[in-house]
Amino acid sequence: VEVPGLLKLSPDQAHAQLAELGLLSGTEDGLGRDVVVIAQSPAPGEQVTVGQSVNLTYGPRVLTVIFEYTVPADSDLPNHQVEIFKEDLNGITRVFSEKMQRGQDVKLTINGTGRMKVTVKDNGTVTKTEDYPQD
How far is 107 from 67, CA to CA, in rounded Å? Predict the structure, then answer.
């Protein structure tokens, strides 16, 4: 049977694919919460016998999200100080800080590790938060 590609799958997804093919999960390094397969042995595409074990190495998932925010067009204030923060396994980081005008849009590509929360502060007030992945 051919070893499937398991990279970026959760432990449950990887186990299910192996079971469908009659394969076992062998050594599992880095198993924990919010992890995905980052390496496997034997490699995808190799031929093995039914019942053979596939060793899996897990690590935190890497996320890339497109995040959008629009300054309210009906605001009483003409200018807004908009700050956007991400919180992930590496801590809290400000990813955007700029003076913006009513109705102005910002669209960012934000990368994070593990679960990630993105928070917008508009003139110091939290106006939007989103959690990723959204599953």
Answer: 6
Residues 85 and 69: their CA atoms lie apart, in Å, by: 12
Cα distance between residue 77 and residue 80, in whole Å: 7
At residue 134, the pLDDT reads 78
Q: Return the residue matching tokens 């053979």.
A: 52
Closest CA to 122 of 10, 107, 102: 102
Average of pLDDT values for 110-119? Answer: 94
pTM of the entire predicted model: 0.73
List CB contacts of 65: < 8 A, sequence separation 6 or more.
109, 110, 112, 116, 118, 132
Inform me whether the pLDDT recorded for 97 exceeds 70.
yes
Instruction: Choose among 117, 130, 132: nearest CA to 61.
Output: 132
Instruction: For residue 28, give both structure tokens.
Output: 């599992």
Average the pLDDT over 39-68 and give the result.
95
Query: Which secondary structure element, helix H or strand E, spans residue 17, and what is its range?
Result: helix 11-20
